[in-house]
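Workshop exercise sheet. Pairs work together: one partner reads the sequence aloud, the other fills in the structure field after running the prediction. Swap roles for the next sheet.
Pair: D.N. / O.F.
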Amino acid sequence: MLDFSEAELSHLAIHQVGNKTNEEGIIISEQEVSINGQIASLLTSYFTRPFKTDEYYNFSHETDLDLNEVYIYVRNIFNDKTSLLSQSINLARHLYEQSIYPHIKSGELYIAYFENCYLNNEITEAIGLFKSEQKETFLKVYPEGKSFAINSEDGININKLDKGCLIFNENSERGYQVLLVDNTNKGEEARYWKELFLNVKPQKDDFYHTKNYLQMCRDFAAEAFPDADKIDQMSLIQESADFFKESEVFDKLQFHEKVLQEPEIIDAFEDYKESYVEQNNLSMVDEFDIDTEAVKKMKRVFKSVIKLDKNFHIYVHGNRNYIRKGFDEASKMSFYQLFFKEES
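Structure field:
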């Protein structure tokens, strides 16, 4: 659980980082930004408000964690926060070297140091790395003589953080506790912030296992049985979701017994899991505590919907025995038959 209600923004450096492919260069600040109480409060809200997930990451490297540039620069700041400016310059240069996709926009890079943060009810420090890329036009209305005047200014919307990460001074030997936000780039171009610049991997905790297992269950229902009855697919998806919602601990054997049930389905699921883990480079265990936040997050993609041409959508939430599929010879069309006790 995160709590920034008492957080103090004590150090801040800002640099301009352009697109290397377009040879836009970087502009380096020679000193930290002077921040007062009101601005510090606004910036703290702007920087921290978007982080609402429990999906943590760790800094990583293929051979040695000490070869991860951001990890080293951040560790130096945690060891001596007066080094924030010099280390922020290293971070800006490193980000510029990774800004190689043509559509990556120039923007300001903020390096912030927060004190009095609470992570899981423990007080700690955090370093934030943020980049603003999108500029918006704002109207400024002000008195002028006996009337009013209007001007426009381009600026940053403090309710929209483009890119960011929060690094908490916890588990340094494992690559710290890291949270991510990227609201501007998708697909291949999103790699430059998460992978090329930060080089982080998902933290293999209960959130990680819960999210990945639920995702695999959904994909299994859709991919492993593409020709199966839609009702059977929806039923498997819904029963998987219900199992995670109603259980506190995931146990593979219980999942087999309560959800998959039939031996041939169990075997097909285990075969699918083996290839799924390899293809997606995942780690899966047979028992873990179910993370309720991960269940809530995955609920958005667990849509048990049967789409019928462009006329109807059937949302399947419960017992598959209350819906039946048939074929009408007269109209040469398929139909679904629904059974219910009352209408609301």
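Discussion prompt: The chain is about 35% helix and 30% strand. What would you look at next?
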